[in-house]
Amino acid sequence: MGLATTSISHSRPASNLPRDHIISILNIPAHLLDRSTTSLRVSYAKYLAYLEAQKSLAKVVGDGKWPLPKKPTSENLIEVFVSKSSFFKNYAPNFSRVEDYPALHLWLKNDKDIPTDMNAWGFQKNVYQFKDLEAYFEHADNADKKKKKKDGKPSGSAQKQQGEKSKGKKRAV
């Protein structure tokens, strides 16, 4: 992916912004810095790069090679790739679930052995957005609940309610 921490770049950014130092030190590719791209596949590539950069940056800081007096925050790293609001609203809640769905994971990675849109999504569109990903997970969650109900196992919320009743606690409204 292009993130490297084996040697720190000798060309330091002109600014003292943590974002600029993170980009320079970790050699983050320019295409992952572009915020005008809204492709779900590019967004997933940014998320994966963020996860990799998180480990690399922790190593840089841990090795004492961070050049600024103040250590970078997780928000500094997030904002290298995307806005904090977008990360917490769309990236983290959705992309953290993708690996549980192998066909969708391969489709988003757009690497090798890419499944068709129909195999990955169950439908075909010209452009996929976060709302499609949210709907995909909602459908999968509902299918899981129906399967558990059919198998005679109460769903998570039904189990929680039963547990609360057995403890003699009333549910808050």
Explained architecture:
By secondary structure, this protein is mainly alpha-helical. It folds into 2 domains: 1-88, no CATH class; 97-153, no CATH class. It has 8 helices and no strands. The chain has helices at 18-26, 40-62, 74-81, 84-95, 102-109, 117-121, 130-150, 156-166. The protein is elongated.
Strands, helices and their partners?
Elements (H helix, E strand, L loop, with lengths): L17 H9 L13 H23 L11 H8 L2 H12 L6 H8 L7 H5 L8 H21 L5 H11 L7
**Uncertain residue segments:** 4-10, 155-173
Estimated structural class: mainly alpha
- Tell me the number of structural domains: 2
Order of helices and strands: HHHHHHHH
The global form is elongated
Largest sheet: none
List keywords for this structure.
173 residues; mainly alpha; 0% strand; elongated; disordered C terminus
Concise synopsis of the structure shown:
The chain has helices at residues 18-26, 40-62, 74-81, 84-95, 102-109, 117-121, 130-150, 156-166. It is mostly helical and 173 residues long.
